[in-house]
Specification:
- 76% of the residues lie in helices and 0% in strands.
- It has 131 residues and is mainly alpha-helical.
- Helix 1 (2-17) runs antiparallel to helix 5 and helix 3 crosses helix 4.
- The protein is flat, with a radius of gyration of 17 Å.
Length: 131
């Protein structure tokens, strides 16, 4: 259940930043930055904090190679689904949503990986050891 919660928050972070609908930070900030610059900066900084938390944890736990490997696995799954006729990549909005879901999986795995590794191996990370 912990992974699902991390994934939902990663998905919400990515969707709040950008999605194909009109309800996202990028479109809102482009339309309102002249009249509401302080709110635009505040919301941008809040999103930046979320990205720093997720990206720092992901880079520390699985690194760039791990991120690329997870993206490769997700990409291959999408390739199989496309090849089998389950999904179609003709709609740009659907492609954007697929990208958002794929990136959210990478972020969620990165944030959860230390916990998974500890449960599988029984070994604590250096950060987990009390002094």
């Amino acid at each position: 259940m912990g992974f699902v919660i991390r994934w939902v928050f990663a998905l919400l972070l990515l969707m709040a930043t950008y999605n194909p609908t009109q309800w996202n930070y990028v479109r809102w900030s482009m339309a309102n930055y002249e009249t509401q610059l302080s709110l635009t900066v505040l919301f941008g900084l809040i999103l930046l904090v979320g990205y720093i938390i997720y990206l720092r944890a992901t880079l520390r736990s699985i690194g760039i190679f791990g991120m690329l490997l997870i993206l490769a696995v997700v990409g291959t799954i999408l390739w199989v689904l496309f090849d089998q006729g389950v999904i179609s990549l003709n709609n740009p909005s659907v492609n954007t949503w697929i990208g958002i879901y794929a990136l959210s999986i990478v972020l969620a795995v990165g944030l959860s990986w230390s916990i998974v590794r500890r449960k599988l191996s029984g070994q604590a990370d250096v950060d987990d050891i009390d002094e």
